[in-house]
């Protein structure tokens, strides 16, 4: 499903699932938000960013989703309604698609809590076909890259630390080894750099 298809259909309500910076910085109006998860994807710092968290010479690393039948990814879904639907999609098209190279898909979102029904949600995913896609690397390599990169929105390290903090505070029961091992590696680099000054 593409955002323009939703707008053309004049949807009165839409859920948008965030698993990266959207969890702590949506920057669009929404009716309500809900912590929860999607299935069949794992979050990975495999996408390059030459605008928000890096530049052409030193691209930052941000998360994307990789298909994995046995995985789930926790984040936040935002419900937008009425005029918010078109406005949020316009904003996200620039933020995620034009500047980030992400494509959209529809996924089933499961809100936290046993009694809440799942909903269909729009999600932005960077694929291997994207020129900014960097692919896998060790936590140490990714940690170094994140520790030294900065873009127009801020330091890449801020992106990593805010995402890790979201997971600890909103999803304390979820162990995200990939995220937390990169956080540890990046903080080791920062400690080393500070000790060298």
Can you walk through the features of this model?
GO terms for molecular function: gamma-glutamylcyclotransferase activity; glutathione specific gamma-glutamylcyclotransferase activity. Catalyzes the cleavage of glutathione into 5-oxo-L-proline and a Cys-Gly dipeptide. Acts specifically on glutathione, but not on other gamma-glutamyl peptides. It is an enzyme of class 4 (lyase). Its EC number is 4.3.2.7. One of its GO terms (cellular component) is cytoplasm. The protein has 197 residues and is an alpha+beta fold. The chain is 34% helix and 31% strand. It has five helices and five strands. A five-stranded mixed β-barrel has the order 1-3-2-4-5. The model has no long low-confidence stretch (mean pLDDT 92).
Number of strands: 5
Low-confidence stretches: none
Alpha carbon gyration radius: 17 Å
Number of helices: 5
Major sheet: size, sense and barrel closure? Answer: 5 strands, mixed, barrel
Average pLDDT metric: 92
Distance between the termini: 50 Å
The percentage of residues in β strands lies in 25-35%
Instruction: Estimate percent helicity.
Output: 25-40%
Main-sheet strand order equals 1-3-2-4-5
Order of helices and strands: HEEEHEEHHH
Structural class: alpha+beta
Anisotropy-based shape: globular
